[in-house]
Amino acid sequence: MKKNDVILVIGVLILAAAAFLWTSFLKSEDGAKAVVYINGEVSASYDLIQDGEYKIETEEGSNYFGIKEGKADMTEADCPDGLCVKQKSVSKNGETIVCLPHKVVIEIEGGSSAGMDAITR
Amino acid sequence: MLLQKLWQELSLNRKKRRMKKKMFYNRVSVLSLCLIVLTALTGCDYMKNTSNYQNTGFAMGTVIAQNMYGGGEETAEQILGVVNKLEKTISWRIDGTEVFLINQNAGTEEPIVVNEKLAEWLHACKDVYEKSDGALDVTVGPVARLWDIGGENPRIPDEQELKEAFGKIGADNLQVDGNEVIFDVEDGGLDLGAVGKGIACDEILSFLKENAPDISGTFSVGGSVLIYGEKPTGQPWRVGIRNPLGEEGEYMGAVNIAQKQGEQMCVSTSGDYEKYFEQDGVRYHHILDPKTGAPARSDLISVTIISESGFLSDALSTACFVAGREKGLEIADVFGAEVIMITRDKEVVMTDGSEEYFELLDKEFEVKNEEK
Question: Distance between CA B224 and CA B195 in Å, rounded?
């Protein structure tokens, strides 16, 4: 093989390696985020690393949730049953806090997994 | 001599051309090889369809949590569509649905023609009603409306109104003949709330089998979970069982269920912690005992049913919860379903089949094995 051929082969292999690393990086464990869904649509997303308090406004009412020490928790809500506030704080991939009357879901994406594919209740 | 020279030159040219051709093909094949490697490394996921996609949405008044491999947003939207479509048949709240019309014509002896599927489901509801000795009764609507648990004004009904509503319940009044339904009681209230989520799981299953047989995943309709196909990692699917005495997100155990592509399993749970109100220190939960017209009081606080049928998993979780430990085990046995019961004393009672799946995660609970 000529020198140019070798250069060509090496070039393509480098490209392949770069592409592989890029796609792996995209799939790798990112910092965990709390993603807020209102009626199934993403409304906001917050890094769990950053402490903060947030308000979620919906047509049916308001919810307040806070992020502290890497966990998200529903702190207040004006929904009729208040069940969402009673739910425990979440921090692992796939965990959720749900306010059914307001159609609000806070879901953790990324980070470590609790190991469950689904929850029956 | 000239001829020889000419011939020599021609052959040399031919050789050069052949060599050039060879080198060209060499380069092309090397390049192709590299491109194949490149595609394989990056496109692997897309070709094998094993990347994970999760979606949380709302339909039929509850949360639909989808966790699938090989599918994406489009499949998720279609599945939400399947549940929305089901609601338009079985919701008693929405004007014009077949269930709504059945209730509207209750007591008039007017037969309502329903679609084949609904007729089947109503037959199945009656079957469970009979075999559970009335523990599951989908005509309990009038009584449920009084309590309004999970609604805006939950309260304890007074004796008089409860007595009146009582006279309106009883699945015997529901007559299903082919595709015709006669609801033979005035102000009857057919309410498929106790089986709707399980039926949704079955509808999702039908959709997947026909339109997406190669994907796999777990699909939760308000806590009734459909497990479909084989997890790409080869591991069993892991479904957490909520700790009935803990907060949302706390598991007391899990069921690990492996499936092959094309197979399914459904898991549903009924518990006294899902919807309730408290008054004077007493909890009034939403699973009514059709015989007393009040929240079921037995030794059980949670019942999980594992069955290939979504409808049965949902229907039996309610029936067994109401019936209690002993009768509940009998009922599950009649239908060939596996059950995991949690008692007030934090004991976990289950059938042999469940033992294979169940994994205890919270040692506060004690597993007591029961023979089928």
Answer: 10
Residue B97: DSSP 8-state:
S
Query: What does DSSP assign to residue B140?
Result: B
Q: What is the ipTM of this complex?
A: 0.81
The distance of Cα A9 from the centroid of its chain, to the nearest Å, equals 40
Interchain contact, A12 vs B150, CB within 8 Å: no
Query: In Å, what is the CA distance from B99 to each residue of A82, B91, B196, B222, B247?
Result: 30, 6, 12, 21, 35
Write the residue in B54, B63, B240 that is nearest to A98 by C-beta: B63
**Residue B278 one-letter amino acid:** E
As to burial, measured by CB atoms within 10 angstroms (0-12 exposed, 13-18 middle, 19+ buried), residue B142 is buried
Interface of chain A against chain B, CB under 8 Å? 1-2, 5, 8-9, 12-13, 15-17, 19-20, 22-23, 27, 37, 39-40, 80-81, 83, 86-88, 90, 94-98, 100, 103, 105, 107, 109, 114-121
pTM of the model: 0.78
For A38-77, how does the pLDDT look when each residue is reduced to its tens digit (9 = 90+)? 988 888 889 888 889 999 999 999 999 999 988 999 999 9
Residue B134 Cα, gap to closest chain A Cα (Å) = 23
Question: In Å, how far are B9, B10, B16 from B5, measured between CA atoms?
Answer: 6, 9, 16
